[in-house]
Amino acid sequence: MSNEPANAVKRMRSPSHPSINLAEAINLAKMLWDKDRMHPMSLGSMSTHWGFTPGSSSVLTKSASLKHFGLLNEIRGGSPGRTQLSDSALKILANEDLNSPERLGLVKKAALLPAVHTELWDKYAGQLPSDVTMKTYLVGERGFNPATVNKFLNDFRETISFAKLSPGDILSSSDELEPESKTVSPPAPLGSATQKAGSPAVVDSKTSTGVPMMPEQTMLTLPLDDGKSVSVPIGMSEDTFNLFLETLQLWKKRIVAKWERKAIWKNSDTDKPVLIIGELGEQNGEKYYKSSDGTGIPGSELTFTS
Question: Residues near 253 by Cβ (< 8 Å), separated by ≥ 6?
């Protein structure tokens, strides 16, 4: 028999999401840059830079938020929990023109990078309804904790406003889920001709000053059944892997190509135009196709017209 009081409220865990807004996340990234530049950092280092006591849970939630926005990367290999600022973070921090198209583009991409942000933005086509409507959806269908959903919605709206997103803004095919796979060299020394004091510098690997480059991520290439392949980084944490799976599922409609071909079905009765939407496999050496009404049709009875 459970010892839990009858009136106890079970703690609900919301889907993974940033615990702060994007403006706060960029400010925290700036604090890391000011202290450690592009050097790998431990959670203890970030605690000190952000003014938290060692082991504070706030460090974990805020560093996770920077990862959601694509501003912080985990270091593959070595001690667990070590991170460094991402290429996107450096480009945002290095651009002092807050209204430049390049910086705004990076900020908009960061704002929509968290899976649940993209889900809401796409669901309402960039025209967000009232908090009551979104709260009903998030709690009822996405399992958000009622005690934290208001804070999330406030951060989400502040992020959208900060990024200056409008209904016409969507991630382009080249921006969607772009992995942080570029190698970033250490910054040029302060006071050099290529860098202003206190500003981050992104040095192209081809024009590096000779300072050893940081190692690239180890990637695993997975073959797909249509002759294509996809590469994923090796060594991600369990939380990052789960977030990766959630994000893939969220973007399924844009990732998966819609397969349709028109054909004439020549059977014993008549010639019938049909729309073929997929393959069903082979049986006894005959390939079967699926029509739009769910009928399985042998390939030998089809003449494709498109």
Answer: none
pTM recorded for the entire structure: 0.56
pLDDT in tens, 173-215: 444 434 433 333 333 433 343 444 444 444 333 333 333 333 4
Count of alpha carbons within 13 Å of 295, Cβ hemisphere only? 13
How much of the chain, in percent, has pLDDT values that exceed 70? 75
Tens of pLDDT, residues 66-97: 999 999 998 876 566 789 999 999 999 999 88
Measured CA to CA, the distance from residue 237 to residue 243 in angstroms comes to: 10
